[in-house]
Amino acid sequence: MEQNLVLEFQQFIIYVNFSGTCQAFLTVSVTSEHFNSGRDVFQIYQNILHILNKYDLQIVHERLFGSNTEREKILSVRSKVISSAGINDEVPVTFIQGQPVWGQGLAGIQIQALKLKNSEDKIWIVKENDKACGRGWKYDGQYFILLQNIYGNQNSPGEFDNRKYQTAEMFERAQRIINSYGGSFRNVVRTWIYLNNILDWYDDFNTIRNEKFKEFRLLANSPNGKLAEEIYLPSSTGIEGDNPVGASAVMDLLAVVPNGGGAPKIFQTTGVKQKSPYRYNSAFSRAMTLDFKDMKQVLISGTAAIDENGKSLHPGDARSQVKKTLEVVEYLVADTGASLHDICGATLFLKQAGDYPVYLEVLKERNLSKLPAVCMVADVCRDELLVELDAIISIDK
Questions:
Q1: CA distances from 206 to 160, 212, 282, 301 (A)
Q2: What are the residue ranges of helices labelled H in 230-376?
Q3: Phi-psi region of 80 (alpha: psi -120 to 50; beta: other; left: phi over 0)
Q4: Secondary structure letter of residue 70 according to DSSP
Q5: Domain tally for the chain?
Q6: If exposure means fewest CB atoms within 10 Å of the residue's CB, which of 249, 257, 274, 305 is most exposed?
Q7: Residue 199: is its pLDDT beyond 80?
Q8: Range of the domain at 255
Q9: Which residues pair with 300 in a beta bridge?
Q10: In terms of DSSP bridges, do strands 94-97 and 58-66 run parallel, antiparallel, or are they unpaired?
Q11: How many CB atoms lie under 10 A from the CB of residue 251?
Q12: Model-level pTM?
């Protein structure tokens, strides 16, 4: 196992967290309002390439969070650096409107990378109608399908009808692509869903997602007396996030398609401080755990200050909400043998930029100042919620 790295620069920090013998998570956190979308993005990707080359890693998931006004400049610089290294620039990248706390520019980058450990393992570009839409890889005998920038047709008339149509088509597109690799939405373990104007239609989004999940038979057993916590649902983040194509919703997801063998074992991780969100109509699990031969990964859903009955806590109190959110995650992963210090990548969403110093203070109090997280300004799914955190935790065996 490699030693985790924290590389500090004047305008940003790069965290490199290794997971098992063959995976790594790179988190770039922009730390200064003086960040330059040209010069500093160039430096970031030069360092990323150095890390990838040094540890023989290949990117399998890449997300950038920043201002749409700076998107073209940021992606242009990224493309030049990537192409100069001989890396296929056809590979997809997700760019989501995630405002840094000081206004414009880049908030951060999250990358998952993989090292092929034997001749049977491989990585490829997933395509839909000859257009790249994700990456696939074979690891420990299983197929992993990571889809990016999946959205629905935007040509339906009427704003609400259009949102409904787009959301349904977004899930149907994902299902069709996974089907082409011998799987289905029942193999999905994680979704990241970014909604335009989330507060206007989050309840409607949940209704449509539930309808599609019933159609995909994820919720087929729910009327038969099962507790919500026993229903197999992917972990998920649903958050405010505009996208370059102007879609009402856009989704990344990870599916694990069985190919014989027994790795990894996959199971839901049930909350201690919070019950299943499906009890109040949101069809996702608190976390999903992937148990590999060499490590265990816990994919933690977007988490906020909500009690076990789904009631929002500490309205208007950002400090208490940050503390409660960390407490919920801490209790959630305790049974897996993990702690908050095992987080290898996180995203923090703040409703108000002015609460950023409060977040940093709470991290310092919890001895988490080096938490590998991208922090941005975005609306959470309820108006009274000021903070949401999602994360991935890794524990080596």
A1: 14, 10, 6, 15
A2: 318-334, 356-365
A3: alpha
A4: G
A5: 1
A6: 257
A7: yes
A8: 5-396
A9: 287, 391
A10: parallel
A11: 24
A12: 0.94
